[in-house]
Structure formats: C-alpha cells, structure tokens
Design goal:
By secondary structure, the protein is an alpha+beta fold. It has helices at about 1-5, 15-25, 35-55, 90-95, 110-115, 165-185, 210-215, 220-230, 300-310, 320-325, 340-345, 360-370, and strands at about 60, 65-70, 85-90, 100-105, 125-135, 145-155, 205, 235, 260-265, 270, 275-280, 285-295, 330-340.
Length: about 375
C-alpha cells in the first residue's frame, strides 16, 4: 500500500487503456448534437467569464503562450519533476539576441506578476483565457495534452490571508458554476434529466487530513472517489503539506500556493494549508472530477519555508521568486478552473474530447467510436 500511495502523489489520469475501456460508459448517448455542443459550450463560456469578473472583481487580460526560461514563471505543476514543459530556442537576430522559451503549462506565476504590470489595487484582479500544453499527461477521458483554463488572480492584504477568505472565494466560484449549469439548461432543456443529477446547491469543505482519517488505507485518488460519493461536491483544503501517513495529499509546487501556514479547523484542530481543489462526482463517468485548483499565494516567509522543505532553494535566484522575497508584487489569491473539464460536466459528456479539439491516440479514438462517443478531430 505504501508504494501505491507514493505512486498516486503525482501524474493524473488512469494510465491504462484496458482500464479506460472498462470505465467509459457502456450505454452512452450524448444529450446534445455536435452543433448544439458547440453552441452550449460558448454559452457556458461567456456566462462563466462574465460572472467570474462580477463576483471576484476581475478584468479580462491577455496571457502568454510562451515565456522566457530565465524568468522562472512557468508552472512546473508538481515538485517531483514528472511533468516538464516544452522548450525551444528562438534564434533571433541570427542568434545574436536569442531567447530560450517554454510553452506554458499554466499561468499561475505569471498572473501574480501581472497584477503589478496592470496596476491592480487590493480587491482587484484579472481573468485570463489561458491555453497550455502538458505533454506528460496520460491521455484519457478527462486529461488531454491541450489545456484550457480560466486562470485568475486577485490582490489581497496580509490580514486577509485566512481560511475565511479562501472559503468565501470558493463559494463565489461555486455560485458561478451553478449559475452556468442553470443557464445552459434553460437554453438546452434536454440537459435537465433525472439520469444525471444537477450539481448540489452548496459544496462541502473538508481538509485532506480529515479525508485520510476516514480512509487511511486508500491512496489519494481512491480517497477522493469515496468522499465525492458521500458529498457530491467538495473543496479539499490543505494540498501539499505532509499528512499523518507521511505523504502529502498530492504533490503541489512550492512556489505559488501556501500549503505550510498553520490553520485551525472548525472543530479546533491544528491543520496546515491555505489552498485546495474543487472536486465533484461526475454522474456520466461515475468518477471523481476535478474542476479547479486554487489557493492563497505564498509570502516571502512561506516561499522560503516551502522551497526549503522541497530542497528547491536555488529557485530564489529567479526573477519571479526574487519579486516575492523583495515584496515587489502583491499578495494574492488565485487559481485555475479547467474550461473543458467544466464544459464536459455541465453538458453531461463522457469524454473531454467532445468539447475540446486536440490530438488523441488511435486506440482511444477507436474506443470512443465503439462507445458512441463523438470526439472532435
């Protein structure tokens, strides 16, 4: 069981097409035609973007697809080096003024720097329509190499850095997602069906340590599956800190979310972490379904502590990390909401390829055809 828990700390996806064949639904019929799916996708997208801006006081801004390697602002996703970005050389000016760049894996760090670029005051923030490539994913029903996210960031004060603010923001995001569900169902009434229940009105907050206590012998993904069957929508707090069994709930990068700060649970227990994920039960796939990862960002103090714990103090020489240490960029809270993941859920789809155009291996495309799943090519 120890090896199984260790293997489950990083790297998403099922990891085996024999297993995926068993998991994809046997009696699937899309509730929308391919054309209706496109109309519904953009109806949901427009609604979510407008309402995220209203609820969180954000403005929409541009976002890079490639970044300078030396900036240190690309997202490494995990801290074990298992998912590395695509990198290439731009031989600008006959290689007299070249640039080595990476394709972004997320805009997590860039957004915090952008708060300063766009002169955001406390209580103001930004929303991006982010696109990324994650080449090291196993391509299954809800993971693709092409990633689309609503990456957002909001400037806050030191006094606001608490579970209270974290939960307040999570509830606002959930309100938007619930509103989007109602919106697309008004436009496409066939999405309202007893076969696939609606999302619950409210989600449940639970700490990763509390989930471990309930299911001490299970690895992370199995624990998550169990908890969302009991509570169909949860926000799991405290992802990154080492739990009672000696493992973090999941590997989390050390240089954006704060997962070391001590907190107190509602029942008075000492915990750690000012971050978390929203997960739901997907009634179509009958599996756990992650929608967003977010958190209050590190301070100079917690950045040093997390980099020390992960043996990555050499990062402090990079411009992004120096900006945090020198208090040159705002304190903030931020996150990324998976766009195609959200559309897949709201439109009752069995596969993310029904709402996102990207590449898939032949084995997966053939499997989807056999199961009546229309994958965009």
């Amino acid at each position: 069981m120890t090896d199984e828990k260790r293997a489950d700390l990083a790297g998403p996806g099922i990891g085996d097409y024999v297993e995926l064949e068993k998991i994809l639904p046997q009696d699937y019929h899309s509730l929308l035609s391919p054309k209706e799916t496109q109309l519904a996708t953009y109806a949901a997208k427009d609604y979510i973007e407008a309402n995220l801006c209203e609820e969180l006081n954000l403005i929409r801004v541009t976002v890079p697809l490639i970044v300078d390697v030396e900036s240190g602002i690309n997202d490494l996703l995990d801290r074990d080096g298992s998912r590395t970005p695509i990198q290439f050389h731009i031989s600008n000016d006959h290689d007299k003024n070249p640039i080595d760049v990476q394709v972004v894996q997320a805009a997590t760090k860039w957004k915090r720097m952008a708060l300063k670029q766009f002169e955001m005051d406390v209580g103001q923030g930004l929303l991006t329509d982010m696109r990324a490539i994650r080449k090291d994913y196993f391509l299954d029903h809800d993971h693709s190499a092409y990633v689309d996210q609503w990456d957002w960031e909001l400037a806050i004060t030191a006094e606001q850095r608490s579970l209270t603010l974290l939960k307040e923001v999570v509830r606002k995001i959930w309100k938007v997602l619930k509103g989007a569900e109602s919106h697309v169902q008004r436009l496409f009434p066939q999405l309202k069906t007893d076969r696939y229940p609606d999302l619950p009105e409210e989600l449940t907050f639970i700490h990763a340590e509390e989930i471990l206590e309930r299911f001490p012998d299970l690895p992370r993904k199995q624990r998550e599956t169990m908890i969302v069957q009991e509570f169909p929508a949860v926000f799991i707090i405290g992802i990154g800190w080492v739990l009672e069994d000696g493992y973090p709930h999941e590997m989390r990068a050390a240089d954006y979310d704060d997962w070391v700060t001590e907190t107190i649970s509602e029942n008075g227990r000492p915990m750690h972490g000012l971050n978390g994920d929203i997960l739901v039960w997907n009634p179509v796939t009958k599996r756990r379904h992650e929608l967003t990862s977010m958190g209050i960002r590190v301070t100079a103090e917690t950045l040093r502590r997390q980099l020390d714990l992960t043996s990555q103090l050499d990062f402090l020489k990079l411009p992004y990390h120096k900006a945090i240490i020198n208090n040159d960029i705002p304190l903030s809270i931020g996150g990324g909401i998976g766009q195609s993941r959200t559309f897949m859920l709201l439109l009752k789809k069995a596969h993310i390829g029904e709402v996102s155009a990207t590449v898939w291996p032949t084995v997966l495309k053939d499997m989807c055809k056999r199961k009546n799943i229309f994958v965009i090519e």
